[in-house]
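Before relying on records like the one below, remember that each one covers exactly one chain. Contacts with other chains, cofactors or solvent are not represented anywhere in the record.
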Amino acid sequence: MQKQELKPEYFLEHAGADNVLCFPPQARHISSNVFGPGITRSAGLRSAVFLDRDGTINEEHGYLRDPEAVTLLPTVCEALRLLNVLNLPVIIVTNQSALGRGLMSKAEFDAVNAALWQTLQACGAYYDALYYCPHAPDCEPPCMCRKPQPGLLLQAAEDFNLDLSHSYIIGDKQSDLDAGYAVGCRTVLVRTGFGEETYKALAQQHRQPDHVAATLLEAVQWVTRDISMLR
């Protein structure tokens, strides 16, 4: 019997809906050849900015289960407000293997995301969607959504009509960069969370990010300059 492929999960949070979290059904599986080489993109595709969550937006706490521990990193509010003003979709893509390992309940995960959403709303910022992979690294069969696999980005591209070759991913881990490389995104390493450790190991990597930034605001400022140059 053929094994069933694991699917990425995601939820969308809609701004202006009384801060109500909306949880659509599980996303359908995205195969590895979606938007692959040789596929012609239609007109009207948009750019977006993908962000890792832990260590990029909020402080890194390992398996974050307590909503009261959600603390934004410096400059995050300013960075997201800048993207919001420019009307660039902000999409969080995050690995959450604690769900698959049974170390975190779905209710705990939802509570942390609710706290993150409310904290951002309090400073006048928001994101457009959060996609997550709940699978453990050693799950069988392997999933296509756990970064460095690009499944979450591919799903978002289909849902939001995105041109990944003109989109950006910002994160603090090598897996964030590798997911971006896989689909042709511009890549930015931010030296928060595990970013300093990732930065020190860059010399051993065969590919380098397009930019390295000290903070999320610095990363977003580079993105805005890069977009203006590419247009």
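Residues 106-122 form the longest helix (17 residues).
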